[in-house]
Amino acid sequence: IMLQLKRSEKLSLVGQMSAGMAHELRNPLTIISGFLQLSRKQAPDAPYLAMMSSEVNRMNEIIDDFLLLSKPVNSRFDRHEVLPLLRETLQLFDNQRKEAGVSAILEEEGAIPKIDCDPNQLKQVFINMVKNAIEAMPEGGLLHITVSALPKNKVGIRFADQGKGIEPGHLTRIGEPFFTTKENGTGLGLMVSNKIIENHAGILRVSSRLGLGTTIDIILPVHIKTA
Ligand code: ADP
Ligand code: MG
């Protein structure tokens, strides 16, 4: 079963309001973060402070996702290599990966050209993909990432995991805001990623077989014409 995510639609009024709210929440959250840091210096052993910090971080991540969704992203496209971004992403997840018993392979097929992209945004997408893959393999497995030079000046990036897969009934809901099957999920990762890839004139496809694994294919053009 395969699915190409829907074009992210123009923000509805509700969307605009939640984006506005996300923006307004940022300031008080920054202040809370500051005082939390101070408290942690004064009471470095208090476990609840560490928990509070990690929850505040989570709130910040949700707010970041929201703001990214609401902004007409004015990206800065530079010629950049994809592979280092993937390597850096894997590095970020080294610990989480080892804890879950997930091994990772990063492979190149062909001579990969540099592509027009906003590297920070692409990395955000890769982080979301790797995170989902690891979360889908709590009992371990292999995450196979392949970067290939495709015809017509395109680059493909494939994330293939051996995780639990996606139920057919859920597949069409993937990428909807807040659709999550996880206890601690936000259900924003794929939506944000899809928006970033669209912004790069690319496409993101999800295919999955329940119990066997999930494959995400991202196809990006090497050149983006800017107005
Ligand atoms: P979140 O990870 O916070 O739940 P996402 O938008 O990243 O939000 O993913 C939405 C849902 O899509 C997940 O809750 C999960 O059900 C499904 N999903 C995404 N990636 C995978 C994957 N690699 N394997 C299995 N299910 C996945
Ligand atoms: Mg996710």
- What gap, in angstroms, lies between the N and C termini? 36 Å
> What count of helical segments does DSSP give?
7
User: How many strand segments?
Assistant: 8
Uncertain parts: none
The profile of the biggest β sheet is: 6 strands, mixed
Helix content: 40-55%
**Structure classification:** alpha+beta
Give the DSSP E fraction (strand runs of 2 or more residues).
Answer: 15-25%
- The coarse overall form would be globular
Main sheet: which strands, in order across?
A: 1-7-8-6-5-3
Rg: 19 Å
Helices and strands, in order, run as EHHEHHEEHEEHHEE
Average residue-wise pLDDT = 90
Small-molecule binders here are:
adenosine-5'-diphosphate, magnesium ion
Protein name: histidine kinase
Describe this structure in words.
This protein is globular. It is of the alpha+beta class and 227 residues long. The mean pLDDT is 90. It contains 7 helices and 8 strands; from the N terminus they run βααβααββαββααββ. Strands 1-7-8-6-5-3 form a 6-stranded mixed β-sheet. A two-stranded antiparallel ribbon has the order 2-4. A hairpin with a 3-residue loop joins strand 7 and strand 8 (213-221). Adenosine-5'-diphosphate is lined by residues 128, 132-133, 136, 161, 163-166, 174, 179-182, 185-190, 214.
